[in-house]
Amino acid sequence: MHPTRSALRFLVAESEPPEARERRRESVGRSSGETYVETLLRLAPGAECHRIKPADAGAELPAGAALSGYDGVFLTGSPLHLYKETPETRRAVAFMRAVFASGTPSFGSCAGLQVATVAAGGTVRPNQRGYEAAFARRITPTERGRGHPLLAGRPAAYDAPAVHTDEVETLPEGAVRLAGNRVTAVQAAEIRFDGGVFWGVQYHPELALDEVSGALRRQAGGLVAAGLAGSQDEVDAYADQVEALHRAPGRRDLAWRLGLDEQVTDAATRRTELRNFIEALGGPRGAAPRRP
Length: 292
Fold this sequence. Notes:
Helix content: 25-40%
Strand order of the largest sheet: 2-1-3-4-11-10-9-6-7
Largest sheet: 9 strands, mixed
Shape: globular
């Protein structure tokens, strides 16, 4: 299947609580779900994209729609803490269990990976090695990951946009860890549960660099408290460089200062996992990505 097939139908599940959704819009002009829709349409022009907010009370699929009617479901990042029992986390996990049961292939980034983990019986916890902010460094595929289609095209070590304070503690039974780094053991994984398959990453292949800089500014207080910056001004200065690289991705001086290469600076390369997931859908409509 070519990723530009016009018949593709995608459902984007945005689990940001309303307050976080509005803060993000004020910061970068779009919610996490809106970012996903925009990115998916770049990868699959002509696709039909619907958006749902499963953590919100009363959230429903579009009229007449069913989970099984979509080619793929995409779970966005979110500030939800999946180790806490709240109405929002319960609704998000229940939605993901329904996705698994529907058999529709799914993909998630950051909290999306964590939601799928908990829904399938794994656990999530606060980061044990501290805040991973701006970029996850030296992500390394596992032996299984090196041959897995989710990571096709990624080198032996790579960086990616990432901002998270939580991590997967234990993967569900039968899940496959595909990549990790020094800070976060589970940077990518495949989870199969109740007839469904999920591919996910702890980082953010969907983000543009202006959204990375926006996240840094929104979370400046946490970055200072974690000792990653000495002040709000230092966070702003770093974010300014990331923002400048967004505007001029060919600037080698900025890439050098930030320690980045084309795995992050090139938009097409940055979206590798999303493109691989869409391509792996393949075959009959709704067919699941397969294990290598």
